[in-house]
Write a structure and sequence with these properties.
Blueprint (H helix, E strand, L loop, with lengths): L2 H15 L4 E2 L4 H10 L6 E3 L2 E3 L2 H16 L3 E3 L13 E4 L1 H8 L11 H12 L3 H10 L3 H8 L4
Antiparallel strand pairs: 1-5, 2-3, 4-5
Length: about 150
């Protein structure tokens, strides 16, 4: 499978296991089963059970790390009755649960910076496309905001 297919499988797995105790080593077979359920190509099987190849396992670890950096996953268990707060356990963050529930991308924005920009962008220009073109052609949006709103 390619990386995008594995990413889809990982997200689908997390949707159905977000309240489970998870470790990287115990999710390979579950992700392989998810891939099989989604009719993605499975190269290896043992006793008719789907398996990930070593290359796919490496890809899963890379996807796992990107989910950590994106704030979808957090170290330690998020299972209410489990007190483990370190690796190798990991869980789905509150933000991650929103991502898994949504069908659209949700940017990681804990300070609501994008909401602030959306609310106040009309002050810069009445037409957001003009504003975007201006920022691309002349200065970054942060420099524009710094001039208009020095208190930010």
């Amino acid at each position: 499978m390619d990386t995008e297919q594995l990413r889809i499988c990982f997200l689908e797995f997390l949707r159905t296991h977000s309240n489970s105790l998870l470790t990287i080593s115990n999710i390979y077979s579950d992700i392989a089963q998810t891939a099989d359920n989604l009719n993605f190509p499975i190269e290896e099987k043992h006793n008719n059970n789907p398996l990930l190849t070593k290359t796919e396992q490496i890809q899963i670890r890379e996807i796992y790390w990107s989910f950590m950096l994106q704030g979808i996953l957090v170290p330690g268990s998020t299972v209410p009755d489990n007190t483990s707060s370190t690796f190798p356990q990991f869980g789905v963050s509150e933000y991650g649960k929103k991502v898994l529930e949504s069908k659209k991308p949700i940017p990681y924005d804990p300070t609501n910076y994008l909401g602030y920009i959306d609310k106040h962008a009309f002050i810069l220009y009445s037409n957001p496309i003009v504003s975007l073109k201006y920022s691309i052609n002349s200065e970054t949006i942060s420099r524009i905001l710094e001039k208009v709103y020095p208190e930010i």
